[in-house]
């Protein structure tokens, strides 16, 4: 009887451990593609956060372009290119209609064509951008 109960227990453990439906959120690949709302900002590297007074929205597309707009301001849409470098946790956000051709370094120089931000994510639906130029300034964006 003891052997049968041990075999049943081992069988149950085996079935549970092989369950294909139990995929953790970390196993799901992250994609920045979609609409993100800027919820909060920080001026001290993330020690404290303040709510955004207006509604800034970012729409990242799979073709490497993004549009940002402020829902409180008419005709505030700006479309440009982005490059997400997950291996180095950097995102480059362009200001022009030229695609980004640089490397994935967190560049601290001010540039008229793009900005570089350190990129962090919390799960699949919250991302943070921290300025490479001034690491104190950051944004929190939440997937919509």
Task: Based on the model shown, name its key terms.
8 strands; 11% helix; 42% strand; 144 residues; mainly beta; Lipocalin; eight-stranded antiparallel barrel; single chain; globular
Fraction of residues in H or I helices: 10-25%
Number of helices: 1
- In round numbers, the mean pLDDT is 81
The description of the largest β-sheet is: 8 strands, antiparallel, barrel
Oligomeric nature of the chains:
single chain
CATH architecture type: Beta Barrel
Compressed to H and E, one letter per element, the order equals HEEEEEEEE
Low-confidence stretches: 4-17
Content-based structural category: mainly beta
Total domain units: 1
CATH C-level class = Mainly Beta
Instruction: Give the overall silhouette.
Output: globular
Q: Calculate Rg over CA atoms.
A: 21 Å
What can you tell me about this protein's structure?
- This protein has 144 residues and is mainly β.
- It has a single domain, classed as Beta Barrel (Lipocalin).
- Helix content is 11%, strand content 42%.
- It is built from 1 helix and 8 strands.
- Strands 1-2-3-4-5-6-7-8 form an 8-stranded antiparallel β-barrel.
- Strand 1 and strand 2 form a beta hairpin.
- The radius of gyration is 21 Å and the shape is globular.
- About 10% of the residues have low confidence.
Entry summary:
It contains 1 helix and 8 strands; from the N terminus they run H-E-E-E-E-E-E-E-E.
